[in-house]
Amino acid sequence: MNTIARKKIIAECDNIVIKVGTRLLTEPERIPRLISSIAELRRRGYRIILVSSGAVGIGMKQLGLNKRPSKLSQIQALAAIGQNKLMSIYDDECRKHNFKSAQLLLTSQDMKERHLNILNCIHALWSNDVLPIVNENDSVSVDELTFGDNDFLAAMLGTITRSPLTVILTTESGLRARNDDGTLGKRISTVSAIDDTMKASASGTDDSHFSIGGMISKLTAAELVNAAGEYLWVADGRNDNTLLDIIAGKDIGTLFIPSKKRMSGKKRWLSFLTESVGQIIIDDGAANAVCAKGSSLLPSGIIGVNGSFERGATVDICDDKNSILARGLTNFSAQEIDKIKGRQTVEIADILHHTADGEIIHRDNLVVM
């Protein structure tokens, strides 16, 4: 991809999510340079969300620790200590550029259950010219500590805010090919498809003392962002000019390119922010119709149903090997589907003894996974 193509991508951006990792923030002098670059992007009209790790690492430095503790309560305490110091530094730097910052501490549960409140808060902050700075709420969370140094959180925020670009700043030049002897080789400029071989070659972090992310978590984040039809760019945050070079369309880091068009708001919600409460098992013909042709799910292709759910529930659509093919909002309860599975649409009313929709899940309420 040449500079012109990259510039075209940037030209379509309005919101940008920028994530900076723990290892970059173990040197506090990087923060003024980071905020300076963000200030320049803001002056150019971009609305920015900064996702910042570093609370645990700074907490460790505050207490003079050299190794990340293994006990969860100790990590949570370090996060509480470090977050206070981290936000103090950020706010001081933002004020030097004549704008303010705000702190949002989130968990995975917040993202799924309160995403509209989060989105409304972010838009309110933007409307008041305030920089939202987001971190995982490590002082109270448990599972969230394993998400990969905020890479997943940044991807989720990029998805719910419909940000065309998510940037992950790290201590690597980007995704790199792995040589036959296992060593890292040439930087990969662009990725249009993430395959199993790429995942297998991506190593975890070699610095577990301070951070818990690695390149594999960046691939996971890229999959999520690309699935929504948007771009993710991994680049070296040790270079002070990285963000400005990205905006200029320069060939740095690794740009992950979506293969799909931008996903609608409803389908984003179905894909990333809902939890399935049941399964509908379908045959090969229905799988082809739903996944390849974009059709609605009809009763004739259903061979089974698992779980107990009512009309309007979110359910997974699976093949006979239990692989998830799609997800959607059902027009029927599990009990009703069990009665009409394998039957024709015209038979539904007679079987259920009431008028009903012709589709089990309408294609507008369905997303292929």
Which descriptors apply to this entry?
single chain; 369 residues; alpha/beta; Carbamate kinase; Archaeosine Trna-guanine Transglycosylase, Chain: A, domain 4; 2 domains; 8-stranded mixed sheet; 5-stranded mixed sheet; elongated
Task: Give a description of the structure.
This protein has 15 helices and 15 strands. The protein has two domains: 3-267, Carbamate kinase, CATH 3.40.1160.10; 274-368, PUA domain (Archaeosine Trna-guanine Transglycosylase, Chain: A, domain 4), CATH 2.30.130.10. It is elongated and about 70 Å long. The strands form three sheets. It has an eight-stranded mixed β-sheet, sandwiched between helices. A five-stranded mixed β-sheet has the order 12-11-13-14-15, sandwiched between helices. It has 369 residues and is an alpha/beta fold. The two termini are 27 Å apart. Helix 3 packs across helix 5 and helix 4 (55-63) crosses helix 5. The protein has helices spanning 3-11, 22-25, 30-43, 55-63, 72-96, 108-113, 115-127, 151-160, 196-201, 215-227, 242-247, 265-272, 284-291, 334-340, 348-352, and strands at 15-20, 47-52, 100-106, 130-136, 165-170, 176-178, 184-187, 190-191, 231-236, 254-256, 279-282, 302-306, 314-318, 324-329, 366-368. Residues 204-213 have low confidence and may be disordered. A hairpin with a 5-residue loop joins strand 13 and strand 14.
How would you briefly describe this protein structure?
This protein is of the alpha/beta class and 369 residues long. It has helices at residues 3-11, 22-25, 30-43, 55-63, 72-96, 108-113, 115-127, 151-160, 196-201, 215-227, 242-247, 265-272, 284-291, 334-340, 348-352, and strands at residues 15-20, 47-52, 100-106, 130-136, 165-170, 176-178, 184-187, 190-191, 231-236, 254-256, 279-282, 302-306, 314-318, 324-329, 366-368.
